[in-house]
Amino acid sequence: MRTVTIHPAAITHNLHEVKRRAPQSKVLAMVKANAYGHGVSAVLPALAEADGIGVAILSEALEARSLGWDKTIGLIEGVFSEDDWHTAIKHDIGCVIHHQPQLDWALASAPPADSATRTVWLKYNTGMNRLGFDDTALISAATALHAAGYQLILTTHFANADVKAHPLNAKQIQRFTDMLAYLQTHISADIQGSLCNSAAIVSQPEHHFDWVRPGIMLYGGSPITEASAAELSLRPAMTFASQVIAIHTVKAGDAIGYSSLWTASVDTRVALISAGYGDGYPRVIDSEADVVIHGQTKAHCCPIRGRVAMDMMVIDIEAAGDDIRLGDTVTLWGDAPHVDTVASYAHTISYELLCRLSPRATRQIH
Amino acid sequence: MRTVTIHPAAITHNLHEVKRRAPQSKVLAMVKANAYGHGVSAVLPALAEADGIGVAILSEALEARSLGWDKTIGLIEGVFSEDDWHTAIKHDIGCVIHHQPQLDWALASAPPADSATRTVWLKYNTGMNRLGFDDTALISAATALHAAGYQLILTTHFANADVKAHPLNAKQIQRFTDMLAYLQTHISADIQGSLCNSAAIVSQPEHHFDWVRPGIMLYGGSPITEASAAELSLRPAMTFASQVIAIHTVKAGDAIGYSSLWTASVDTRVALISAGYGDGYPRVIDSEADVVIHGQTKAHCCPIRGRVAMDMMVIDIEAAGDDIRLGDTVTLWGDAPHVDTVASYAHTISYELLCRLSPRATRQIH
């Protein structure tokens, strides 16, 4: 048994936290990568109060439309071909334009005047050096798009927003602010701005501009290194759980599992649980990694021993006495341990764990 | 664009390699964890010549039955409840029995005489210390099951078969061989044995016994540290590919992506590709990690620069001159780079990369 339970009420709560922090801004809720692994169909109803959703690729946009999402959709990598541009127009999808071919397609085929695709998210490279136009090309693109009847949202992306004091943040903010002012003065006062991902929503409250783009915070993960999700009043939107399938005692001196990574120093009672990296739990973790087993009388925080395998892992339940029985529920991440904590065991970020869940677990909504 | 292409001909070839190495043994082809991420429905036709398939959990067994697999199914974690035991009987699923409750369920409710569930895979703990009975309990379980009319396959699992010279291997083989001889002498000469996973199929040819249980080698990954997949004549069964979605030049001194991990020492032409950890590519990789871009005239092995993001990554194409264009296909793993190589960049094994693919990529069979 392995289950992934999605909590829509937590997502709505987290959306309210975004709105509380950015009350003057519209919210583009990021649901790319299958809503960070939570499932688009499970999260869209919880995001009904968002002003729009953001997706990475066209197929994700079309899925959201097929699920009935009729408000703004922002396609953050834009289209990859001229054919895709026409598909975007057909489905009223607002596109990022970040390089010359996308600009050419937009200028060659303008959408109807009432189309949502008339709003373009024009990507400015302020220091991420990944997507976006540099200064001269951006001004030229904005001028041409405005002349062709497009409404523009200037957008950029932080490289280091998770570390508030990183010196690149101030530089990116300054470049963005200067460019937006230039475009509003020289092209159109109606040009809007969108700068902040989750991290910047929290740490750059004076720079929220017209649209904020929360991602991980909607799902209850902390976007910044300086504060936990709980300190930011964010609630985890997913519980990943399994079950005790066997209990036995490993004798002192015996090793457990692949590569005999852990050896019992004393006779040790262990529980097998039926989840592993084949479900999306990371295989390589620190020795302090733990799970929470919901025993007969209380919850126990218990360490993982040895190598996480494809379909199971071994938990040290010696400290729990007889309170843990066959069939007991095990939280891999959820309220505790928090997915941010599990990510730290694997030297990565919660985003990756959430996205890299395999389809094997049973999915439910609660 | 991100595609996962499964190659059934490679799987059949790899199955033939198993049979060539273990000509006297029956083959239980492991298709747990959605056939190591390849998709059960995609691989079953390629495994038609296997004698049976192995799955981790009951839902996987039922999926295989619903897809028309009518030969042996081995449930390697066994059932988790008495209800599941009855479901196993109903669908002719052969179960591992590795602890007392499973034994109790089997003894309380024997399947009909013609049921495939009458064959039990009795798990012996020879040193993995994860699942299975110790000596005394095993002999007692075998005696009781035989008396109740079950046919038995003694089975165990290696902890360190990937390292041929590991001293635990010889100990596990000795314990297994001794126990099988004891059971055949004292209980029934018909008791069979199953010892070898992929690694042991390759490195322990004298100990193949009645059933071998190949997993990773069916999918073209090397199971041992001493030889590559190519050296073992195994062909990769999956190609994970993406596409160049933008090309630009990063100026000397500028950093790329999240956390500004990589800084260009000279002006550097880079390609953005539309795949990332949201698709299952590992986020944390060594600096030598690379991809193969299929350019206009030839294939180029090009390094990944900066942090792999959720939906994209940046590739250094400076050495490829103008040969790489928008829309070019990029192999993340396949013939080259091999998934074993990518796994080494992430300090893990190919099994994990294959299993932790997300559902986002378009799936195809070729």
From TrEMBL, chains A, B:
Q: In which pathway does it act?
A: Amino-acid biosynthesis; D-alanine biosynthesis; D-alanine from L-alanine: step 1/1
Does this UniProt record's set of keywords contain Cytoplasm? no
Q: Where does substrate bind?
A: 130, 310
The record's active-site residues are: 32 (proton acceptor), 258 (proton acceptor)
Main enzyme class: isomerase
**Residue positions of the PTM N6-(pyridoxal phosphate)lysine?**
32
Q: What is its EC number?
A: 5.1.1.1
The protein's matches in SUPFAM superfamilies, at most eight in alphabetical order, are given as: Alanine racemase C-terminal domain-like, PLP-binding barrel
Q: Which UniProt keywords apply?
A: Isomerase, Pyridoxal phosphate
Domain Alanine racemase C-terminal, by residue range, is 237-366
Cofactor dependence is on: pyridoxal 5'-phosphate
Coiled-coil stretches are none
Family matches, as InterPro entries: Ala_racemase (IPR000821), Ala_racemase/Decarboxylase_C (IPR009006), Ala_racemase_C (IPR011079), Ala_racemase_N (IPR001608), PLP-binding_barrel (IPR029066)
What is the name attached to this protein's record? Alanine racemase
Q: Gene encoding it? A: alr
